Amino acid sequence: MPSLIEHIDFHGQPALHLVTAAGARAIVSLHGAQVLSWIPPGGEERLYLSPLARFDGSAAIRGGVPVCFPQFAELGPLPRHGFARTISWSLTAERSGKDFALVTLTLSDSDATRALWPYPFWAELGILIEDSRLDLELEVENTGSEALEFTAALHTYLAVREVEQSRLEGLHGYTYHDQVDAGRTRRDSGDVLLIEAETDRIYHDVKRPLLLREYDRSLGVNADGFSDVVVWNPWVERSATIADLPADGFRRMLCVEAAAAHRPVRVDAGESWWGRQTLVAL
């Protein structure tokens, strides 16, 4: 079967179904430009999507890869994680070849965005599946006449079989803000990161690829342009406060996010910035 891109309805939302000739698959919602599913060739689902996720457009969809822009978390005056994940993006390009499928979605300022964040901008998210790889590249252009600043993240919910049995490698020696402990600054001293309690960390200036190991499979995580890595799991008590996450949902997911959070990104008038996250199934 050749690679193709289908326009589908996914839980009432317009979406795109990407399929490669090798059998890789992805589903992308136009609401939030959000990747909701990614299955490498011959493999299993690698993104977690909550069975209680809301698809009515009133909120971000819980799972997949929400785009946090122009604010990450509560690091500013905007609604948590900004507005990009709750707005419909426009499909501007779709291409497929022998072994890849690629879509490009864009978002620009409007009366609604300027009421929250008074800057002209243009954002583009490219989503590529190829072989056992998922690439997401976010570009932000300042189309106004003065500099702007933002924080951002690709809030990636990775699917795991059991989070307590998962091991995240590559963060040894990096400094992080521990959001569970009032934002205190710490240094990671372990060979691997194990999730055994609520975890919410912003690692600074991460320059090496990460590896998520679990049982008989692994996932490589690499970022370019994004300076930080966020690791998040709500654990038992926090999960109970999240209405669109089942009680045991925390066991099946681990967020490992490419982020620009520790220091805001500054983009001068007429200039642009880009960041990429690449996931490779091993």
From TrEMBL:
GO terms for cellular component: cytoplasm. GO terms for biological process: carbohydrate metabolic process. GO terms for molecular function: carbohydrate binding; glucose-6-phosphate 1-epimerase activity. It catalyses: alpha-D-glucose 6-phosphate = beta-D-glucose 6-phosphate. It holds the Pfam family Aldose_epim. It is an enzyme of class 5 (isomerase). SUPFAM superfamilies: Galactose mutarotase-like (SSF74650). Its EC number is 5.1.3.15. Keywords: Isomerase. Gene3D superfamilies: 2.70.98.10. Belongs to the glucose-6-phosphate 1-epimerase family. This is Putative glucose-6-phosphate 1-epimerase.
